[in-house]
DNA sequence: TGCCAGGCCTTCC
DNA sequence: GGAAGGCATGGC
């Protein structure tokens, strides 16, 4: 089995996989992370400016890894641009340089972030893994069993009660309705991917269980729209702390601040601020 | 025990 | 259009 070696710049594997944007990667053996990209298992580690990749399927592996981790995107230019925004962004990006957005699967991201509402990251991971284990395709690798996140087709006969059994709580009916909308053709994932951001957001908002915050996470983490600024409790907290002196301020006002000051890089800045406040770095 | 978590839906003004 | 209440569940 060959280990693929790829040169990377402005890339930090730990920050990228542990910043909360994805729910299925886990750390093994100190150095490695194991996860899924599309339909293959990936075992990956970073040493200095190189990542080393193992997989059960080596066909076009490098291309798949490059797409998933956005290796073609010029994060050097992005980071050099956003550290000039203000002192807080400068500090946050300094703390977590190399944090990148992933290019995640749209269907998996939709379901995962429906589950994320009023939830916490360990429990989201647990539910997403349980759904994968019950309904996704099994992959054997190195004597262990792993599961792909199921396709909408694989979920077509799953009942509300069966989702509930995966630990998703009151979100069971949201998942059920969304899967049904997709399978019926009423909501076509392939047709919407390239829509302008505002239209795509409207489409996503029409799905049950998707509100403004979840829609923005989907736009950011699986549609490459780095101008959106998802506001959850943590982002609200860090924005109040840094820019509003703890005042009682609405999400609308926070969003306006982001639009006025962070512009088309708002999503990148958001992810740095989110990770910094959660790790108590800022 | 009560509060919190990558909020959203429904109901009621 | 905005505010208030309810919601499953596990960790602290």
Question: What would you note in describing this structure?
Answer:
The chain has 3 domains: 69 residues, TATA-Binding Protein; 117 residues, Hypothetical protein, domain 2 (Endonuclease III, domain 1, Orthogonal Bundle), CATH 1.10.340; 46 residues, no CATH class. The strands form 2 sheets. A 5-stranded antiparallel sheet has the order 1-5-4-3-2. It has 14 helices and 7 strands. It is α+β, with helices and mostly antiparallel strands. Helix 5 packs across helix 6 and helix 5 runs antiparallel to helix 11. The chain starts with a strand and ends with a helix. The chain binds a DNA duplex (13 and 12 nucleotides) through helix 6, helix 11 and helix 12.
Class computed from helices, strands and strand pairing: alpha+beta
Low-confidence stretches: none
Number of domains: 3
Helix tally equals 14
Task: Give the amount of beta strand, in percent.
Answer: 5-15%
Give a count of the beta strands, DSSP E runs of length 2 or more: 7
What is the makeup of the main sheet? 5 strands, antiparallel
CATH class bucket of the largest domain: Mainly Alpha
What is the element layout, followed by pairings?
Layout: E1 4-7, H1 13-18, E2 26-28, E3 32-37, E4 40-47, E5 50-55, H2 61-68, H3 75-82, H4 87-95, H5 106-115, H6 121-135, E6 138-141, E7 144-147, H7 160-164, H8 172-183, H9 189-192, H10 197-205, H11 212-222, H12 233-243, H13 251-261, H14 266-278
Antiparallel strand pairs: 1-5, 2-3, 3-4, 4-5, 6-7
Helix pairs in contact: 4-14, 5-6, 5-11, 10-11, 12-14
This protein binds a DNA duplex (13 and 12 nucleotides) through α6, α11 and α12.
